[in-house]
Amino acid sequence: MRTESGFESKWKRRSLWALLFFALVHGLVSFPNHHQFRTYALDLGLYTHALWQYAHGTLADCSLFLEVEQPLLADHFDLYLPLLSPLVYVTGSWTLLIVQWLAVLFGAWGVRRLALAMGATEAAAFTGMLVMLLFFGVLGAMAFDYHSNVLVAMLLPWFMLMLRIGRSLMAVIMFVLMLMGKESVGLWLGPVAFILATDPALPSNRRWLSAALGVLGIAWSITVIGWLMPALSAGSSYAHFDYGILGASVSDVPSALITRPLDLVAALFTDASGAKDGTSIKLEFWLMLLAAGGWSLIPQWRYGLMALPLVAQKMWHDEPGKWSVIAHYGVELAPLVGIGVALAHRRLSTDVGKAVSWVAVILSLSSSIRFMDRTVAYHDRSRIRIYQAQHYVKGYDVPAVKHALAAIPLGASVSAQSPAVPHLVLRDRVYQYPIVRDADYLVFLPQEGAYPLSAESLHDSIQALRKDPSWELFIETDGSVLFRRADGLDAVNGR
Length: 495
What we know:
Blueprint: H1 6-35, H2 41-55, H3 80-84, H4 88-91, H5 95-117, H6 122-134, H7 136-143, H8 148-164, H9 168-179, H10 186-196, H11 204-232, H12 253-259, H13 261-267, H14 278-291, H15 301-315, H16 320-323, H17 333-346, H18 350-373, H19 398-406, E1 414-416, E2 430-432, E3 441-444, H20 455-467, E4 471-477, E5 480-485, H21 488-494
Parallel strand pairs: 1-2, 1-3
Antiparallel strand pairs: 3-5, 4-5
Helix pairs in contact: 1-5, 1-6, 5-6, 5-8, 5-17, 6-17, 6-18, 8-9, 8-17, 9-11, 10-11, 10-15, 15-17, 17-18
């Protein structure tokens, strides 16, 4: 039985202390945002309401944000939500934020374990873990609200570890769990598994297993995107093929890859759509990726190839926000960068390795500071600057707003402005305003963002409701305005 030396124990303690420190940092990024109404109907409100629906034996649907009726699985094929749904009884609207926070810590420890299994020193593994935890994509995801991409990404090092140490059944379980996160995951994980199948460090039986999983991943995504989701969709189509450069539909992709390779390569770095600051957004991403540890993926060519499908999905998307460093649009790269840095350190002499480790951590920290300070596509600094008071306070009375929301009966249906939705989802029916349907109550936070309306339209709506005899003012506080149907109280009590 292998025992730890004093040297190994020292580095393990350091790693645990670092994990505890970053648990605090990432917690300070994520949780105050929810408390201060900086989480939204899309995505935290939608997915937490799905937890509530699944936990109560109902198939989650898209009624919260779409006028059409269809299962939520037609929008994103996320099977984590049914699995996680029982937790909503314990942690309520905080459930997915807590799960995401724990997932990041789990993924970071997986990077350390994988690096050690691949022959890296304790110091190199520690550095790789630090670089992953500092990665701007992780900070951006924690500042966003919730997305299943984060959970998928944090399982990747554990899948690779299980494959490396010969725990084949656990590797298969990890791979399947990743596929369950989102419909498009297999288009990334398939190539990842194929690349791992070329690793001579793996025995032939595990290389064949990895290749088989690669086939499974691609087949899964093609089946779900090409057949299952359109079958569930009200429009009989896949809603998220937003890749004009690849064609009008998923079926056009092979032709585009074969006939327009130079255009596609150019589109990784430059914008041909005419979006504001489009090329600058792409170049900023590349520069920050390199500084944050992406440089290590160049000599570690297998890991560089694993990153390519992710980068292509980002840069070929029609929406400029997807090209940027913001939100969760780069989080999947974090474990690859952490592993890459650890392995780059492994190849160097002790003294050079120490220097490289310091440089890698400093550069990664610098890219995160740049992310918190200023980026081309991200302007709401209060979401990410945990060292400033604006992150923890609002310009209105937050406790009074929460007290007003708590006054809405749990049996009532509600239509609410996006930032209020995540705080109102533990009920059967909740909608993002301006969808009203059968709502008994309307909730507005006038000082918050008006999406999907303009600020002017939202203001006009509130003023019109003040004069509408079918609605009555229920509660008005510093920061919130709540209306109730004139007959809403009787309707609620009569249910």
